[in-house]
Automatic annotation (TrEMBL):
Gene Ontology molecular function: DNA binding; DNA-binding transcription factor activity
Lineage start: Bacteria, Bacillati, Actinomycetota, Actinomycetes, Micrococcales
Residue span(s) of domain HTH gntR-type: 10-78
Protein name: GntR family transcriptional regulator
Region (Disordered): 244-266
DNA-binding as UniProt keyword: yes
Length: 266
């Protein structure tokens, strides 16, 4: 039974989603056990069918559950889920807590036109590396990293970045921080793309498989670009969730007054 919630300030579907989310985290249901049906939740919580569906949709979008027509709603197996908020650079640094990086192409000198433009380079000298990232043994992301020459040289003593196949919990921005290069912010752009002949084998998917494509440009306190990271995520193993709000509406002017009727002296 899903316990009722008392956060009346939230919409009904969010209160229900929150209750279900807590039950999932408490492992109330086995991974092969269906969750309560829409009708059961409707009666138990005295909410509309639409409220139940919106609650389940929120959990589906988070990757916590999946729905099978004719069978029901099930908890997504933990090995296929990766949930971590990325709102600050510190959140990105915390990837080292529960994911593992495996080097695909070691850190070395390279050149890429787009990377040079992003990093605002005036020469063809830069460093690059390729890696995949795993959560509980499952690959969910493939990343290409590009660094200005001086920044890349700083990481030449990072042994785990220098040979294909090596694994580490380190992040590139974490390694840079340890060498005194502090990341103060990042610009991010996202789009959808299809896996190509290069990306598909790294992610273990077929060519043409849909991917979430994310590009991040990291800068230091002076605004100088220090890293450009291009990542492709498998949507079945990774969810990017963003909550949007509205700006406060402007207050009406206290000095404005209606025009007086015709013939009325001002």
């Amino acid at each position: 039974m899903v316990p009722p919630t008392v956060r009346a300030e939230q919409p009904g579907y969010r209160r229900l989603a929150s209750a279900l989310r807590e039950q999932i985290r408490a492992q109330t249901w086995d991974e092969d056990e269906p969750l309560p049906t829409d009708g059961e939740l409707e009666k138990e919580h005295r909410v509309s069918r639409q409220t139940v569906r919106r609650a389940y949709l929120e959990l589906v979008n988070e990757g916590l559950v999946y729905r099978v027509p004719g069978r029901g709603t099930f908890v997504t197996p933990s090995r296929l889920r990766y949930h971590r908020p990325f709102e600050t650079v510190d959140d990105l640094l915390s990837l080292s807590e529960d994911t593992e990086l495996e080097v695909v192409e070691a850190l070395a000198g390279t050149y890429d036109d787009r990377a040079a433009a992003q990093l605002q380079l005036t020469t063809r000298l830069m460093y690059g590396m390729r890696f995949v990232r795993r959560h509980q043994g499952v690959v969910f992301c493939a990343t290409d990293v590009y660094l200005p020459l001086a920044v890349g040289q700083v990481l030449e003593d990072e042994a785990t970045f220098l040979e294909p196949g090596l694994k580490t919990t380190r992040t590139v921005i974490g390694a840079l921080a340890d060498h005194g290069i502090q990341i103060s912010g990042a610009e991010q752009s996202m789009t959808a793309r299809a896996a190509d002949e290069l990306t598909a084998p790294r992610l273990g998917c077929s060519v043409g498989h849909p991917l979430l494509h994310v590009e991040r440009l990291y800068v230091d306190a002076s605004g100088r670009p220090v890293e450009w990271a291009v990542s492709d995520f498998l949507p079945e193993h990774y969810t990017h969730r963003l909550r949007l709000g509205r700006r406060s509406m402007p207050s009406p002017s206290l000095t404005a007054a209606p025009h007086p009727p015709k013939g009325t002296p001002e």
